[in-house]
Design goal:
297 residues; Cytidine Deaminase, domain 2; 2 domains; four-stranded mixed beta sheet; 10 helices; binds zinc ion
């Protein structure tokens, strides 16, 4: 367990810590809390659903990697299954700020990569920035999802984003997380590239047609592959690159980026943009000296 998470756990009120510790300290803990675990925690702590989500926020924020701002943002997204997924911001030294990951994007892509098809709600320790409100407006559940902040009454996403611009304005029917997979294959792919193709097949890129996926291999024992699918946005700039989505999965699994041994990127030849140069520049900024395996299909 990383030191920040241990500190956040130790700082929880004792009547919450005693029940959450066995979950977080379990070696299989993946920064998620299942619906039955959450129900049980409500019974044990006597907190309401909202109070418990707010109480867990410092644990999510402890995953923050923020060497520039030192501003730790945590988010907890609840999937349609009822499972809760932690997320936290990531900043990268030596690349433009546009490569940063916001906590909401982290929690959402965490839920997405673990198979959720939409979100019920998201709980965040600071008000969502305009970029994140727009990012969330791309979701399959953008019309129904709720946003909870500390010391605020719960509001709908649409209350946070009045007169919104979104996929409908561009006559696009597909939505982020809507669970309609593509069927691309390649005979040239090795195991790592095959995992990248699997990620491409759930990516969301209806505007550029530049569907893409990333697979990361680690040089550690145990779970050694992490995948990320590209998440495009109707407003273009809030789109989340596949590499960042894969790095989020590592971050939430408590893996250090220095353990990356190989990265594969796959994208479509028919796309109107390419992810290759930006992916390489972020990898270079991580100072990993890794050759990016690349395939266009
Ligand atoms: Zn944001």
């Amino acid at each position: 367990m990383n030191k920040q998470l241990q500190n956040a756990l130790n700082a929880l009120p004792e009547n919450i810590a005693m029940y959450i510790k066995p979950i977080v300290e379990d070696k299989h803990f993946g920064a998620t809390i299942s619906a039955p675990q959450f129900e049980q925690l409500i019974k044990q702590t006597g907190l309401t659903d909202k109070q418990l989500r707010l109480a867990l926020l410092p644990l999510a924020a402890s995953y923050s990697i923020s060497p520039i701002s030192k501003f730790c943002v945590g988010a907890i997204a609840r999937g349609l299954s009822g499972q809760l997924y932690f997320g936290a911001n990531i900043e990268f030294l030596n690349v433009p700020l546009g490569q940063s990951v916001h906590a909401e994007q982290s929690a959402i892509s965490h839920a997405w990569m673990k198979g959720e098809k939409g979100l019920q709600d998201i709980t965040i320790n600071y008000s969502p920035c305009g970029h994140c409100r727009q990012f969330m407006n791309e979701l399959s559940t953008a019309e129904s999802m709720r946003v909870q902040l500390p010391e605020q009454t719960e509001k709908s996403l649409q209350q946070y984003l009045p007169e919104s611009f979104g996929p409908k304005d561009l006559d696009i029917d597909s939505r982020l997380m809507d669970g309609k997979p593509l069927t691309h294959v390649s005979a040239e792919a090795d195991q790592l590239m095959q995992k990248a193709i699997d990620a491409l097949n759930i990516s969301h890129a209806p505007y550029s047609g530049s569907y893409g996926g990333i697979a990361i291999e680690l040089n550690t024992e145990g779970e050694s592959f992490y995948c990320g699918a590209y998440a495009e946005n109707a407003a273009f700039n809030p789109s989340l690159p596949a590499l960042q989505v894969a790095l989020i999965q590592m971050q939430m699994a408590g893996k250090d980026f220095s353990t990356i041994s190989a990265v594969a990127l796959v994208e479509l030849k028919s796309g109107t943009i390419s992810h290759q140069a930006c992916t390489q520049s972020v990898l270079d900024a991580l100072a990993l000296d890794i050759e990016l395996k690349y395939l266009a299909i």
